[in-house]
Amino acid sequence: MSDSLKINLTILPEERLRLAFSEDAEWFKECFSADELPEFSLVRADVNCFITRAGDTIFIRGELAAQISQECSRCLELATIPIGGDFTYTLVPVKEETAENMELTAQELETSCYRGDFIDLAPIICEQIVLRVPMKILCTEDCKGLCPRCGINLNTDSCYCHSDVVDDRLAVLKNFKVKN
Ligand SMILES: [Zn+2]
Ligand SMILES: [Zn+2]
User: Which of 35, 104, 110, 164 is most buried by its number of CB atoms within 10 A?
Assistant: First the structure.
């Protein structure tokens, strides 16, 4: 399945190659080892890629539109949010000397390497997905979250705890004053 994202450079056309593909949750999971799995899961990723070459250098320009799901960081319900954007990569063939000499210049850091006659787009797409997931996932911008006392989901239910929380704080304050 992930082999479909391997590009054979020996048959890359002179003009740019356009690749459009969609991937799902299973594909995304297979890109990671079990202990490296991200907290979120991929729902679907649509990718549009343009691949051009200049000699040995391969340029990849792409557009990613994906949906990911993860627990809302306030209410803990599963939230699905859109992510995406444009990306570019420059790939050069790996040289054995540069692999040994790890002193990379700034320019080299923006450039990835490939080995042999194939480029695998899977790690590139996975990296783009991971990079674009926000630190904090919310089901909606104004998610009310869970009640800190009874744990009820305040988006769908209501409780009478809120006023108690305020009262408790005042009570603590009162006690504090009394002790002094
Ligand atoms: Zn929420
Ligand atoms: Zn409550």
Answer: 164
Choose between 45 and 103: higher pLDDT. Answer: 45
Ligand 1: centre distance to CA 27 (Å): 27
Same domain membership, residue 167 and residue 109: no
Containing structural domain, residue 174: 144-180
Q: What are the CA-CA distances from residue 81 to residues 4, 45, 52, 72, 156 (Å)?
A: 26, 12, 31, 10, 19
The confidence band for 104, taking pLDDT boundaries of 50, 70 and 90, is low
How many domains does the structure of the chain reveal? Answer: 2
Locate 160 and state its tokens: 């009478």
pLDDT at 180: 45
